[in-house]
Amino acid sequence: LIGELCKGKEHKKALHLYSEMKNSGISADAGVLTKLISCACEEELMAQLLEEAGDVHDVEILKSLYNSVLNRLIGQGLVDRAYHLVKMIMEGQTLGDNGVETFFKLKGIMCMNSTSFTIIVTALCQDGRLDEALQLFRGMDKIGCEKDVLLHNNLINALSNADRVVDSLDLLREMKHSGFKPTQFTYNSIYGYFCRKGDAVEAKNIMKEMWYCQHEPWIKHSTTLVKQLCKHRRATEASNFLFEMVELGIVPHLIPYSAVVDGFFKLQEVDQALELYHDVLSRGYRPDVVAYNILINGLCKAKRTSEAQEVLKNMLAGGLVPSTVTYNSLIDGWCKSGNIDLAVKCFSKMIGDNVEPNVITYTTLIDGLCNAGLPDGAIMLWNEMEVKGCSPNRITFMALISGLCKNGRPDTALFYLREMEKKELAVDSFVCVALMDSFLSNDNPQSAFNILKEIVDKELLPDPADKNHALVKEAITKLSYLPQTSSRVSTLVTEGSIPITFCLGVKTEIETQPST
Protein backbone atom coordinates (compact mmCIF):
# COMPACT_ATOMS: atom_id res chain seq x y z
CA LEU A 1 0.00 0.00 0.00
CA ILE A 2 2.85 2.39 0.85
CA GLY A 3 4.44 1.56 -2.48
CA GLU A 4 1.26 2.44 -4.40
CA LEU A 5 0.90 5.71 -2.49
CA CYS A 6 4.50 6.62 -3.33
CA LYS A 7 3.92 5.67 -6.96
CA GLY A 8 0.86 7.93 -7.03
CA LYS A 9 2.92 10.76 -5.48
CA GLU A 10 0.67 10.84 -2.41
CA HIS A 11 3.71 11.38 -0.22
CA LYS A 12 2.00 12.66 2.93
CA LYS A 13 -0.34 9.69 3.06
CA ALA A 14 2.56 7.27 2.53
CA LEU A 15 4.59 8.78 5.37
CA HIS A 16 1.55 8.88 7.65
CA LEU A 17 0.89 5.19 6.98
CA TYR A 18 4.55 4.45 7.73
CA SER A 19 4.21 6.22 11.11
CA GLU A 20 1.18 4.07 11.93
CA MET A 21 3.16 1.01 10.90
CA LYS A 22 6.02 1.95 13.27
CA ASN A 23 3.66 2.70 16.13
CA SER A 24 2.15 -0.75 15.68
CA GLY A 25 5.60 -2.28 16.09
CA ILE A 26 5.86 -3.44 12.48
CA SER A 27 9.34 -3.11 10.95
CA ALA A 28 9.65 -1.90 7.37
CA ASP A 29 11.88 -3.83 5.02
CA ALA A 30 14.49 -2.19 2.79
CA GLY A 31 12.13 -2.21 -0.19
CA VAL A 32 9.54 -0.12 1.65
CA LEU A 33 12.25 2.22 2.97
CA THR A 34 13.53 2.73 -0.56
CA LYS A 35 10.06 3.81 -1.66
CA LEU A 36 9.64 6.06 1.38
CA ILE A 37 12.91 7.87 0.63
CA SER A 38 11.29 9.04 -2.60
CA CYS A 39 8.69 10.81 -0.40
CA ALA A 40 11.13 12.43 2.04
CA CYS A 41 10.87 16.22 2.04
CA GLU A 42 14.07 16.78 4.00
CA GLU A 43 17.49 15.17 4.06
CA GLU A 44 17.11 14.62 7.81
CA LEU A 45 14.14 12.33 7.17
CA MET A 46 16.15 10.45 4.54
CA ALA A 47 18.88 9.89 7.15
CA GLN A 48 16.33 8.53 9.64
CA LEU A 49 14.95 6.11 7.08
CA LEU A 50 18.46 4.93 6.19
CA GLU A 51 19.24 4.46 9.88
CA GLU A 52 16.20 2.22 10.19
CA ALA A 53 17.50 0.15 7.28
CA GLY A 54 20.28 -0.86 9.66
CA ASP A 55 23.48 -2.57 8.63
CA VAL A 56 22.51 -3.61 5.12
CA HIS A 57 24.75 -6.27 3.58
CA ASP A 58 22.77 -6.94 0.42
CA VAL A 59 24.62 -4.98 -2.29
CA GLU A 60 21.56 -4.67 -4.52
CA ILE A 61 19.51 -3.18 -1.68
CA LEU A 62 22.33 -0.73 -0.95
CA LYS A 63 22.36 0.39 -4.57
CA SER A 64 18.60 0.74 -4.55
CA LEU A 65 18.70 2.92 -1.41
CA TYR A 66 21.52 5.06 -2.79
CA ASN A 67 19.77 5.62 -6.12
CA SER A 68 16.55 6.47 -4.32
CA VAL A 69 18.39 9.18 -2.37
CA LEU A 70 19.93 10.57 -5.57
CA ASN A 71 16.55 10.64 -7.29
CA ARG A 72 14.91 12.41 -4.37
CA LEU A 73 17.63 15.05 -4.07
CA ILE A 74 17.44 15.77 -7.78
CA GLY A 75 13.64 15.80 -7.64
CA GLN A 76 13.90 18.56 -5.03
CA GLY A 77 16.25 20.55 -7.27
CA LEU A 78 19.31 19.70 -5.16
CA VAL A 79 21.44 18.58 -8.12
CA ASP A 80 24.61 19.98 -6.60
CA ARG A 81 23.99 18.06 -3.38
CA ALA A 82 23.48 14.83 -5.34
CA TYR A 83 26.61 15.54 -7.41
CA HIS A 84 28.78 15.94 -4.31
CA LEU A 85 27.30 12.79 -2.77
CA VAL A 86 28.50 10.90 -5.86
CA LYS A 87 31.91 12.59 -5.72
CA MET A 88 32.20 11.63 -2.04
CA ILE A 89 31.79 7.94 -2.86
CA MET A 90 34.08 8.06 -5.91
CA GLU A 91 36.90 9.99 -4.26
CA GLY A 92 36.48 8.89 -0.64
CA GLN A 93 35.88 12.44 0.54
CA THR A 94 34.14 13.43 3.76
CA LEU A 95 31.78 16.34 3.23
CA GLY A 96 30.42 16.71 6.73
CA ASP A 97 28.68 14.99 9.60
CA ASN A 98 25.50 14.22 7.70
CA GLY A 99 23.40 11.12 8.31
CA VAL A 100 23.01 10.32 4.62
CA GLU A 101 26.74 10.71 3.95
CA THR A 102 27.69 8.76 7.05
CA PHE A 103 25.51 5.85 5.97
CA PHE A 104 26.92 5.61 2.45
CA LYS A 105 30.58 6.54 2.92
CA LEU A 106 31.08 3.46 5.08
CA LYS A 107 29.73 1.29 2.27
CA GLY A 108 31.97 2.84 -0.39
CA ILE A 109 31.66 2.20 -4.10
CA MET A 110 29.52 -0.88 -3.61
CA CYS A 111 26.57 1.56 -3.31
CA MET A 112 26.90 2.66 -6.93
CA ASN A 113 25.98 1.14 -10.25
CA SER A 114 25.41 2.39 -13.80
CA THR A 115 21.91 3.54 -12.80
CA SER A 116 23.48 5.88 -10.22
CA PHE A 117 25.55 7.51 -12.93
CA THR A 118 22.61 7.67 -15.32
CA ILE A 119 20.62 9.53 -12.66
CA ILE A 120 23.28 12.13 -11.87
CA VAL A 121 24.68 12.50 -15.40
CA THR A 122 21.18 13.09 -16.80
CA ALA A 123 20.50 15.73 -14.13
CA LEU A 124 23.81 17.50 -14.80
CA CYS A 125 23.12 17.47 -18.54
CA GLN A 126 19.71 19.02 -17.97
CA ASP A 127 21.41 21.71 -15.88
CA GLY A 128 23.92 22.37 -18.67
CA ARG A 129 26.82 21.13 -16.53
CA LEU A 130 28.28 18.99 -19.29
CA ASP A 131 31.93 19.09 -18.21
CA GLU A 132 31.03 17.77 -14.76
CA ALA A 133 28.84 15.10 -16.35
CA LEU A 134 31.72 14.04 -18.61
CA GLN A 135 34.11 14.00 -15.66
CA LEU A 136 31.86 11.58 -13.75
CA PHE A 137 31.40 9.48 -16.87
CA ARG A 138 35.17 9.23 -17.38
CA GLY A 139 35.62 8.29 -13.72
CA MET A 140 33.37 5.24 -13.93
CA ASP A 141 36.21 3.03 -15.18
CA LYS A 142 38.36 3.92 -12.17
CA ILE A 143 35.83 2.48 -9.73
CA GLY A 144 35.00 -0.49 -11.92
CA CYS A 145 31.49 0.63 -12.77
CA GLU A 146 30.30 -0.44 -16.21
CA LYS A 147 29.01 2.12 -18.67
CA ASP A 148 25.97 1.40 -20.80
CA VAL A 149 24.26 2.54 -24.00
CA LEU A 150 21.81 4.79 -22.15
CA LEU A 151 24.61 6.80 -20.54
CA HIS A 152 26.39 7.25 -23.86
CA ASN A 153 23.13 8.32 -25.51
CA ASN A 154 22.25 10.86 -22.83
CA LEU A 155 25.66 12.49 -23.05
CA ILE A 156 25.81 12.47 -26.85
CA ASN A 157 22.35 14.02 -27.03
CA ALA A 158 23.17 16.71 -24.45
CA LEU A 159 26.48 17.57 -26.14
CA SER A 160 24.80 17.79 -29.54
CA ASN A 161 22.05 20.04 -28.18
CA ALA A 162 24.75 22.27 -26.68
CA ASP A 163 26.46 22.53 -30.10
CA ARG A 164 29.45 20.49 -28.89
CA VAL A 165 29.32 18.14 -31.83
CA VAL A 166 33.08 17.45 -31.79
CA ASP A 167 32.70 15.98 -28.29
CA SER A 168 29.62 14.08 -29.47
CA LEU A 169 31.53 12.50 -32.35
CA ASP A 170 34.46 11.63 -30.06
CA LEU A 171 32.05 9.92 -27.67
CA LEU A 172 30.40 8.08 -30.57
CA ARG A 173 33.79 6.70 -31.65
CA GLU A 174 34.58 5.77 -28.05
CA MET A 175 31.20 4.08 -27.73
CA LYS A 176 31.81 1.90 -30.80
CA HIS A 177 35.37 1.13 -29.70
CA SER A 178 34.02 -0.08 -26.33
CA GLY A 179 31.77 -2.55 -28.10
CA PHE A 180 28.49 -0.70 -27.67
CA LYS A 181 26.19 -0.49 -30.69
CA PRO A 182 24.89 3.05 -31.31
CA THR A 183 21.11 3.15 -31.48
CA GLN A 184 18.75 5.14 -33.66
CA PHE A 185 18.62 7.71 -30.84
CA THR A 186 22.43 7.98 -30.79
CA TYR A 187 22.71 8.77 -34.47
CA ASN A 188 19.68 11.05 -34.57
CA SER A 189 21.11 13.18 -31.76
CA ILE A 190 24.10 14.01 -33.98
CA TYR A 191 22.07 14.05 -37.20
CA GLY A 192 19.73 16.57 -35.56
CA TYR A 193 22.66 18.89 -34.78
CA PHE A 194 23.83 19.00 -38.41
CA CYS A 195 20.24 19.49 -39.60
CA ARG A 196 19.71 22.43 -37.25
CA LYS A 197 22.91 24.00 -38.57
CA GLY A 198 21.87 23.45 -42.19
CA ASP A 199 25.02 21.36 -42.81
CA ALA A 200 23.79 19.06 -45.57
CA VAL A 201 27.21 17.49 -46.19
CA GLU A 202 27.76 16.26 -42.62
CA ALA A 203 24.09 15.36 -42.24
CA LYS A 204 24.44 13.18 -45.32
CA ASN A 205 27.55 11.47 -43.91
CA ILE A 206 25.77 10.58 -40.66
CA MET A 207 22.71 9.51 -42.63
CA LYS A 208 24.82 7.08 -44.69
CA GLU A 209 26.26 5.57 -41.52
CA MET A 210 22.75 5.27 -40.11
CA TRP A 211 21.55 3.53 -43.27
CA TYR A 212 24.46 1.08 -43.03
CA CYS A 213 23.39 0.29 -39.44
CA GLN A 214 19.74 0.00 -40.55
CA HIS A 215 18.59 3.05 -38.62
CA GLU A 216 16.13 5.68 -39.90
CA PRO A 217 16.76 9.43 -39.73
CA TRP A 218 13.94 11.15 -37.89
CA ILE A 219 11.45 13.10 -40.00
CA LYS A 220 11.61 16.16 -37.76
CA HIS A 221 15.37 16.50 -38.31
CA SER A 222 15.18 16.05 -42.09
CA THR A 223 12.40 18.64 -42.20
CA THR A 224 14.51 21.04 -40.12
CA LEU A 225 17.42 20.64 -42.53
CA VAL A 226 15.43 21.35 -45.68
CA LYS A 227 13.74 24.32 -43.99
CA GLN A 228 17.13 25.71 -42.98
CA LEU A 229 18.44 25.29 -46.53
CA CYS A 230 15.33 26.90 -48.03
CA LYS A 231 15.52 29.75 -45.51
CA HIS A 232 18.97 30.55 -46.90
CA ARG A 233 17.77 30.31 -50.52
CA ARG A 234 19.25 26.84 -51.04
CA ALA A 235 16.07 25.06 -52.16
CA THR A 236 17.88 23.16 -54.94
CA GLU A 237 20.36 21.76 -52.40
CA ALA A 238 17.44 20.78 -50.17
CA SER A 239 15.75 19.01 -53.07
CA ASN A 240 18.96 17.16 -53.93
CA PHE A 241 19.32 16.03 -50.32
CA LEU A 242 15.89 14.39 -50.41
CA PHE A 243 16.71 12.63 -53.68
CA GLU A 244 19.94 11.32 -52.15
CA MET A 245 17.86 9.92 -49.29
CA VAL A 246 15.77 8.06 -51.85
CA GLU A 247 18.91 6.70 -53.55
CA LEU A 248 20.01 5.27 -50.20
CA GLY A 249 16.68 3.54 -49.87
CA ILE A 250 15.40 5.93 -47.20
CA VAL A 251 11.91 7.16 -48.07
CA PRO A 252 11.46 10.81 -47.01
CA HIS A 253 8.16 11.86 -45.46
CA LEU A 254 5.78 14.19 -47.29
CA ILE A 255 6.54 16.97 -44.77
CA PRO A 256 10.14 17.72 -45.91
CA TYR A 257 9.04 17.47 -49.55
CA SER A 258 6.34 20.07 -48.87
CA ALA A 259 8.93 22.30 -47.18
CA VAL A 260 11.12 22.22 -50.31
CA VAL A 261 8.15 22.97 -52.59
CA ASP A 262 7.46 25.98 -50.35
CA GLY A 263 11.14 26.95 -50.59
CA PHE A 264 11.02 27.01 -54.40
CA PHE A 265 7.85 29.13 -54.34
CA LYS A 266 9.48 31.65 -52.00
CA LEU A 267 12.36 31.94 -54.46
CA GLN A 268 9.73 32.54 -57.17
CA GLU A 269 10.94 29.40 -58.92
CA VAL A 270 7.38 28.29 -59.59
CA ASP A 271 8.13 25.78 -62.34
CA GLN A 272 10.67 23.96 -60.16
CA ALA A 273 8.16 23.89 -57.31
CA LEU A 274 5.54 22.35 -59.58
CA GLU A 275 8.04 19.89 -61.05
CA LEU A 276 8.98 18.65 -57.59
CA TYR A 277 5.33 18.48 -56.55
CA HIS A 278 4.41 16.33 -59.57
CA ASP A 279 7.46 14.15 -59.00
CA VAL A 280 6.30 13.55 -55.43
CA LEU A 281 2.85 12.57 -56.74
CA SER A 282 4.43 10.14 -59.20
CA ARG A 283 6.16 8.42 -56.28
CA GLY A 284 2.81 7.53 -54.79
CA TYR A 285 2.51 10.23 -52.15
CA ARG A 286 -0.97 11.51 -51.36
CA PRO A 287 -0.89 15.23 -50.55
CA ASP A 288 -2.42 16.31 -47.26
CA VAL A 289 -4.10 19.64 -46.49
CA VAL A 290 -0.77 21.27 -45.58
CA ALA A 291 0.83 20.20 -48.89
CA TYR A 292 -2.16 21.51 -50.86
CA ASN A 293 -2.11 24.78 -48.90
CA ILE A 294 1.56 25.31 -49.77
CA LEU A 295 0.83 24.70 -53.45
CA ILE A 296 -2.25 26.93 -53.53
CA ASN A 297 -0.53 29.74 -51.63
CA GLY A 298 2.55 29.57 -53.86
CA LEU A 299 0.49 29.74 -57.05
CA CYS A 300 -1.60 32.63 -55.71
CA LYS A 301 1.52 34.58 -54.72
CA ALA A 302 2.83 33.97 -58.26
CA LYS A 303 -0.41 35.46 -59.66
CA ARG A 304 -1.47 32.09 -61.03
CA THR A 305 -4.69 31.97 -59.05
CA SER A 306 -6.64 30.18 -61.78
CA GLU A 307 -4.23 27.24 -61.45
CA ALA A 308 -4.59 27.41 -57.68
CA GLN A 309 -8.36 27.15 -58.11
CA GLU A 310 -7.85 23.93 -60.10
CA VAL A 311 -5.67 22.58 -57.29
CA LEU A 312 -8.57 23.27 -54.91
CA LYS A 313 -10.82 21.14 -57.12
CA ASN A 314 -8.28 18.28 -56.96
CA MET A 315 -8.12 18.69 -53.21
CA LEU A 316 -11.89 18.37 -52.91
CA ALA A 317 -11.94 15.42 -55.30
CA GLY A 318 -9.41 13.71 -53.04
CA GLY A 319 -11.83 13.94 -50.13
CA LEU A 320 -9.87 16.58 -48.23
CA VAL A 321 -11.55 19.51 -46.50
CA PRO A 322 -10.00 22.92 -47.30
CA SER A 323 -8.99 24.93 -44.25
CA THR A 324 -9.28 28.63 -43.48
CA VAL A 325 -5.68 28.96 -44.71
CA THR A 326 -6.68 27.44 -48.07
CA TYR A 327 -9.45 29.95 -48.67
CA ASN A 328 -7.39 32.86 -47.35
CA SER A 329 -4.72 32.18 -49.99
CA LEU A 330 -7.29 32.06 -52.80
CA ILE A 331 -9.12 35.19 -51.63
CA ASP A 332 -5.80 37.05 -51.42
CA GLY A 333 -4.84 35.77 -54.88
CA TRP A 334 -8.06 36.96 -56.50
CA CYS A 335 -7.86 40.32 -54.70
CA LYS A 336 -4.24 40.88 -55.74
CA SER A 337 -5.06 40.04 -59.38
CA GLY A 338 -7.96 42.52 -59.38
CA ASN A 339 -10.70 39.89 -59.57
CA ILE A 340 -12.78 41.09 -56.64
CA ASP A 341 -15.91 39.28 -57.85
CA LEU A 342 -14.10 35.93 -57.74
CA ALA A 343 -12.66 36.82 -54.32
CA VAL A 344 -16.18 37.49 -52.99
CA LYS A 345 -17.43 34.28 -54.63
CA CYS A 346 -14.62 32.36 -52.94
CA PHE A 347 -15.55 33.95 -49.61
CA SER A 348 -19.19 32.90 -50.11
CA LYS A 349 -18.10 29.32 -50.87
CA MET A 350 -15.99 29.37 -47.72
CA ILE A 351 -19.06 30.32 -45.66
CA GLY A 352 -21.17 27.75 -47.51
CA ASP A 353 -18.66 25.02 -46.71
CA ASN A 354 -18.86 25.94 -43.00
CA VAL A 355 -15.21 27.02 -42.92
CA GLU A 356 -14.85 29.79 -40.35
CA PRO A 357 -13.28 33.03 -41.67
CA ASN A 358 -10.67 34.59 -39.40
CA VAL A 359 -9.35 38.13 -39.05
CA ILE A 360 -6.92 37.51 -41.94
CA THR A 361 -9.82 36.55 -44.22
CA TYR A 362 -11.75 39.71 -43.41
CA THR A 363 -8.69 41.96 -43.59
CA THR A 364 -7.73 40.61 -47.01
CA LEU A 365 -11.22 41.05 -48.46
CA ILE A 366 -11.73 44.50 -46.90
CA ASP A 367 -8.46 45.62 -48.49
CA GLY A 368 -9.49 44.05 -51.81
CA LEU A 369 -12.91 45.74 -51.81
CA CYS A 370 -11.33 49.13 -51.10
CA ASN A 371 -8.77 48.64 -53.87
CA ALA A 372 -11.63 47.74 -56.24
CA GLY A 373 -13.39 51.03 -55.45
CA LEU A 374 -16.06 49.42 -53.27
CA PRO A 375 -15.66 51.11 -49.87
CA ASP A 376 -19.32 50.56 -48.92
CA GLY A 377 -18.86 46.83 -49.46
CA ALA A 378 -15.78 46.96 -47.22
CA ILE A 379 -17.76 48.69 -44.44
CA MET A 380 -20.59 46.14 -44.76
CA LEU A 381 -18.05 43.32 -44.42
CA TRP A 382 -16.52 45.08 -41.40
CA ASN A 383 -19.93 45.19 -39.72
CA GLU A 384 -20.54 41.52 -40.56
CA MET A 385 -17.18 40.63 -39.04
CA GLU A 386 -18.05 42.36 -35.77
CA VAL A 387 -21.52 40.75 -35.64
CA LYS A 388 -19.86 37.33 -35.96
CA GLY A 389 -17.59 38.11 -33.02
CA CYS A 390 -14.35 38.39 -34.99
CA SER A 391 -12.44 41.36 -33.56
CA PRO A 392 -10.49 43.49 -36.04
CA ASN A 393 -6.79 43.86 -35.30
CA ARG A 394 -4.56 46.83 -36.08
CA ILE A 395 -3.87 45.54 -39.61
CA THR A 396 -7.61 45.33 -40.31
CA PHE A 397 -8.14 48.89 -39.05
CA MET A 398 -5.27 50.24 -41.13
CA ALA A 399 -6.47 48.39 -44.25
CA LEU A 400 -9.93 49.95 -43.93
CA ILE A 401 -8.68 53.44 -43.02
CA SER A 402 -6.13 53.63 -45.85
CA GLY A 403 -8.68 52.07 -48.23
CA LEU A 404 -11.31 54.67 -47.38
CA CYS A 405 -8.72 57.39 -47.93
CA LYS A 406 -7.95 56.00 -51.40
CA ASN A 407 -11.65 56.23 -52.19
CA GLY A 408 -11.98 59.86 -51.08
CA ARG A 409 -13.75 59.09 -47.79
CA PRO A 410 -11.44 60.76 -45.22
CA ASP A 411 -14.25 61.68 -42.78
CA THR A 412 -15.33 58.04 -42.49
CA ALA A 413 -11.67 57.01 -42.29
CA LEU A 414 -11.15 59.46 -39.40
CA PHE A 415 -14.04 57.84 -37.52
CA TYR A 416 -12.33 54.43 -37.73
CA LEU A 417 -8.99 55.98 -36.76
CA ARG A 418 -10.58 57.26 -33.55
CA GLU A 419 -12.10 53.82 -32.94
CA MET A 420 -8.66 52.33 -33.39
CA GLU A 421 -7.20 54.76 -30.85
CA LYS A 422 -9.96 53.88 -28.35
CA LYS A 423 -8.79 50.28 -28.55
CA GLU A 424 -5.22 51.50 -27.89
CA LEU A 425 -3.95 49.95 -31.12
CA ALA A 426 -0.73 51.46 -32.49
CA VAL A 427 -1.16 53.46 -35.70
CA ASP A 428 1.51 53.34 -38.40
CA SER A 429 2.72 56.56 -39.98
CA PHE A 430 1.47 55.67 -43.48
CA VAL A 431 -2.17 55.61 -42.28
CA CYS A 432 -1.99 59.16 -40.92
CA VAL A 433 -0.20 60.34 -44.06
CA ALA A 434 -2.91 58.77 -46.24
CA LEU A 435 -5.60 60.50 -44.16
CA MET A 436 -3.88 63.89 -44.37
CA ASP A 437 -3.44 63.53 -48.13
CA SER A 438 -7.07 62.50 -48.58
CA PHE A 439 -8.32 65.55 -46.67
CA LEU A 440 -6.15 67.77 -48.88
CA SER A 441 -7.50 66.12 -52.02
CA ASN A 442 -11.04 66.76 -50.73
CA ASP A 443 -10.26 70.47 -50.24
CA ASN A 444 -10.35 70.26 -46.46
CA PRO A 445 -7.03 71.85 -45.43
CA GLN A 446 -8.15 72.46 -41.82
CA SER A 447 -8.63 68.72 -41.19
CA ALA A 448 -5.45 67.96 -43.16
CA PHE A 449 -3.49 70.29 -40.87
CA ASN A 450 -5.04 68.71 -37.77
CA ILE A 451 -3.78 65.31 -38.91
CA LEU A 452 -0.35 66.83 -39.70
CA LYS A 453 -0.25 68.22 -36.15
CA GLU A 454 -1.03 64.73 -34.79
CA ILE A 455 1.74 63.25 -36.94
CA VAL A 456 4.19 65.81 -35.53
CA ASP A 457 3.03 65.42 -31.92
CA LYS A 458 3.15 61.61 -32.06
CA GLU A 459 6.59 61.71 -33.76
CA LEU A 460 5.27 59.82 -36.79
CA LEU A 461 7.00 61.94 -39.44
CA PRO A 462 8.53 59.52 -41.99
CA ASP A 463 12.28 59.26 -42.49
CA PRO A 464 13.84 60.60 -45.72
CA ALA A 465 14.20 57.02 -47.00
CA ASP A 466 10.47 56.40 -46.52
CA LYS A 467 8.37 56.71 -49.69
CA ASN A 468 5.85 58.83 -47.74
CA HIS A 469 8.49 61.46 -46.96
CA ALA A 470 7.94 63.23 -50.29
CA LEU A 471 4.16 63.09 -49.82
CA VAL A 472 4.35 64.73 -46.39
CA LYS A 473 6.79 67.35 -47.67
CA GLU A 474 4.42 68.20 -50.53
CA ALA A 475 1.46 68.42 -48.13
CA ILE A 476 3.35 70.74 -45.77
CA THR A 477 4.28 72.99 -48.69
CA LYS A 478 0.65 73.15 -49.88
CA LEU A 479 -0.66 73.88 -46.40
CA SER A 480 1.95 76.64 -45.95
CA TYR A 481 0.50 78.52 -48.96
CA LEU A 482 -3.19 78.13 -48.08
CA PRO A 483 -4.63 81.05 -46.08
CA GLN A 484 -6.58 78.73 -43.73
CA THR A 485 -3.42 76.95 -42.52
CA SER A 486 -0.35 78.98 -43.49
CA SER A 487 0.15 80.69 -40.11
CA ARG A 488 -0.13 77.44 -38.17
CA VAL A 489 2.33 75.68 -40.48
CA SER A 490 4.69 78.63 -40.07
CA THR A 491 4.46 78.28 -36.28
CA LEU A 492 5.39 74.59 -36.45
CA VAL A 493 8.36 75.40 -38.69
CA THR A 494 9.69 78.28 -36.59
CA GLU A 495 9.29 76.22 -33.40
CA GLY A 496 11.44 73.52 -34.98
CA SER A 497 8.66 70.92 -34.69
CA ILE A 498 9.09 70.03 -38.36
CA PRO A 499 12.60 68.91 -39.41
CA ILE A 500 14.45 70.98 -42.01
CA THR A 501 14.18 68.17 -44.60
CA PHE A 502 10.44 68.93 -44.88
CA CYS A 503 10.81 72.71 -45.01
CA LEU A 504 12.37 73.43 -48.42
CA GLY A 505 9.79 75.42 -50.38
CA VAL A 506 7.64 76.03 -47.31
CA LYS A 507 6.25 79.54 -47.00
CA THR A 508 6.74 81.11 -43.56
CA GLU A 509 5.43 84.30 -41.99
CA ILE A 510 8.90 85.83 -42.22
CA GLU A 511 8.80 85.54 -46.01
CA THR A 512 5.40 87.29 -46.21
CA GLN A 513 6.33 90.27 -44.01
CA PRO A 514 6.80 93.54 -45.99
CA SER A 515 10.35 94.86 -46.19
CA THR A 516 11.15 98.13 -44.36
TrEMBL record:
Extract the InterPro entries matched here.
Answer: PPR_rpt, TPR-like_helical_dom_sf
Q: Does the keyword Repeat apply?
A: yes
Q: Repeat PPR: residue ranges?
A: 1-28, 113-147, 148-182, 183-217, 253-287, 288-322, 323-357, 358-392, 393-427
Query: What are the protein's UniProt keywords?
Result: Repeat
SUPFAM superfamilies reported in the protein's UniProt record: HCP-like
Q: Which residues form a coiled coil?
A: none
Pfam families linked to this entry: PPR (PF01535), PPR_1 (PF12854), PPR_2 (PF13041)
Where exactly are the transmembrane stretches of this chain? none
Q: State the NCBIfam families in the record.
A: PPR (TIGR00756)
Q: Which PANTHER family match?
A: OS03G0856100 PROTEIN (PTHR47447), TETRATRICOPEPTIDE-LIKE HELICAL DOMAIN SUPERFAMILY (PTHR47447:SF22)
Stated family: Belongs to the PPR family. P subfamily.
Q: What is this protein called?
A: Uncharacterized protein
Q: Which species is the source of this protein?
A: Opuntia streptacantha
